[in-house]
Amino acid sequence: MVRLDGGTFRMGSQEFYPEEGPVHERTVAAFAIDRHAVTNADFAAFVAATGYVTVAERAIDPDDVPGAVEDLTPGGLVFTPTSGPVDLNDWRQWWRWVPGASWRAPEGPGSTVDDRSRHPVVQVAFEDAVAYATWVGKRLPSEAEFEYASHGGRGDQRFAWGNEPYPGGVAHAHTWLGRFPYERVGDHGGGTAPVGSYPPNGYGLADMIGNVWEWTSDVYTARHAVPRGAAGTDFEPGRTTKDGTCCHGGAPHTAAAVSPVPLRTIKGGSFLCTPEYCYRFRPAARSSQSEDTATVNIGFRCAR
Fold first, then answer.
1. Residue 224's domain spans which residues?
2. Beta bridge partners of 232
3. CB atoms within 10 A of CB 86
4. Cβ atoms of residues 125 and 291 within 8 Å
5. Contact 259, 82 (CB under 8 A)
6. Domain Sulfatase-modifying factor enzyme-like, which positions (predicted)?
7. Mean pLDDT for all residues in the chain
8. What is the count of structural domains for the chain?
């Protein structure tokens, strides 16, 4: 873990998406945070020691999803590249519900993590992340802690590394390069990368941006709840660059749930983020996800 002294920073952005505002001053106390996301090897040790069964592996009770019309076999959401250009307003074009997908088999039956021990664990719901954190005597970071840490001490920059997404044409985080969601450049996008594949930020933290979205402890709100007395700047209408549910998908764990599920804030963006579609590989970016959702591009790290 890396220990951070904490401090006051300007949280949020008024340049991109409405949910990132208002910009305001936020203070976080000293805390420690994992150098990188929890890996498959880490999570496998937890499961071996406790016998824990993740949300994506549990049988689904039909009474929990009255009116469901789809298959209620346990599973998770898996990214599937398209064969060519599609309507980027419809995330269903590249996300599919795969029965049997889990942290052990992220893309579904036949896939494995045997050769991905240093990749971040995925297909984990919020409850799974909390269970692991509790087992190791830690907790999930708050949204404010995550954003503070992801800046790496460069709070005046749009990105964790500067003001340009790809300075000098170089990617500083594991995101999608190419035409989304069907054409990618090299190893960028399409799947996770081993933790630490890109240079750490100014605090020595790896992959706070890109690779996988990460769960935080905060219940999601459509706008930042500004602390009483904090200075703030509201969002400027008309400056949004993109819209939509972004690159993590929007379906709940059951793929057919009709009852409300609590939403949590996820941070950091993932290997599916790209300026063409999802400009959320920035410290200020945030999105919502239902607590019982497991996808191939959401993981977590711990704090204390």
1. 1-304
2. 24
3. 15
4. yes
5. no
6. 1-304
7. 88
8. 1
**How far apart, in Å, are the Cα atoms of 226 and each of 10, 149, 152, 275?**
11, 19, 22, 28
The C-alpha atoms of residue 203 and residue 181 are separated, in whole angstroms, by: 32
Predicted pLDDT at 61: 72
Mean pLDDT in residue range 261-279 = 93
Q: CA distances (Å), 265 to each of 76, 163, 237, 239, 289, in order?
A: 19, 24, 23, 22, 7
Q: Which two tokens stand for residue 252?
A: 């709940």
Give residue 217's identity as a one-letter amino acid code. Answer: S
Distance from C-alpha of 143 to C-alpha of 148, rounded to nearest angstrom: 9
Distance CA 185, CA 252 (A): 30
Task: Collapse the DSSP code of 92 into the 3-class scheme (helix H, G, I; strand E, B; otherwise coil) and give the result.
Answer: helix
Q: What is the DSSP letter of 62?
A: G
- Token digits of residue 261: 């599920």
- Check residues 74 and 256 and name the one with the higher pLDDT: 74
Q: With beta carbons less than 8 A apart as the criterion, state whether 18 and 151 touch.
A: no
CA separation, residue 130 to residues 74, 197, 267 (Å): 20, 26, 16
CATH code: domain of residue 13: 3.90.1580.10
**pLDDT for position 225:** 80
Asked whether the beta carbons of 93 and 86 are under 8 A apart, the reply is: yes
Supply angle C-alpha 77, 251, 56, rounded to 5: 45
Eight-class DSSP state of 30 = -
115: three-class secondary structure by DSSP:
coil
Taking residues 20-24, what's their average pLDDT? Answer: 94
Q: How far apart are CA 77 and CA 91, in angstroms?
A: 11
- Per-residue model confidence as pLDDT tens digits over 194-240: 999 999 999 999 999 999 999 999 999 999 887 766 666 554 433 33
Of 98, 58, 55, the closest CA to residue 78 belongs to: 98
Closest by CA position to 259, among listed 68, 56, 57: 68
Helix H or strand E segment including 44: helix 40-50
Residue type, 41: A
